[in-house]
Amino acid sequence: xxxxxxxxxxxxxxxxxxxxxxxxxxxxxxxxxxxxxxxxxxxxxxxxxxxxxxxxxxxxxxxxxxxxxxxxxxxxxxxxxxxxxxxxxxxxxxxxxxxxxxxxxxxxxxxxxxxxxxxxxxxxxxxxxxxxxxxxxxxxxxxxxxxxxxxxxxxxxxxxxxxxxxxxxxxxxxx
Length: 175
Fold this sequence. Notes:
Layout: E1 6-8, H1 14-30, E2 39-41, E3 48-50, H2 53-67, E4 72-74, E5 80-82, H3 83-90, H4 94-102, E6 117-119, H5 120-141, H6 152-174
Antiparallel strand pairs: 1-4, 2-3, 5-6
Helix pairs in contact: 1-2, 3-4
Organism: Jiangella alkaliphila
GO molecular function: DNA binding
Pfam family, one: HTH_17
């Protein structure tokens, strides 16, 4: 089978439900990490191969998505990605990835004389760190309304004051 992008559409099949049900039941008993062996079985009695944990995780994600009625696209990636491939994976523009490289936020290699390449591991590590920073920022800026003793009017006035401060900083910065 060629190593190219392939999209799989969900089927209206009880087989997907059976596979997902099996995986769910096994996970409830043995945990999320497959402690037992999963095998792909061929037509002959002794024709089987053990499925590695990484393929088990991919299989589970694919089955869950298909069962939910979503299409799944498998896109084989090299260990070194172009800046455009890195941008696609992050969901940002290529110039943003180039800026991350220029600012030494994201390491890159230049195997030839022209193209900068990003290691897939570095990109995935950056994506995980970025998501953790975003979640921390959300937690730090969230308000537990049970702890707020001020009335809605007091809170509205505080928001107006903060907006005015931000506007003043922007106008001072733009000068």
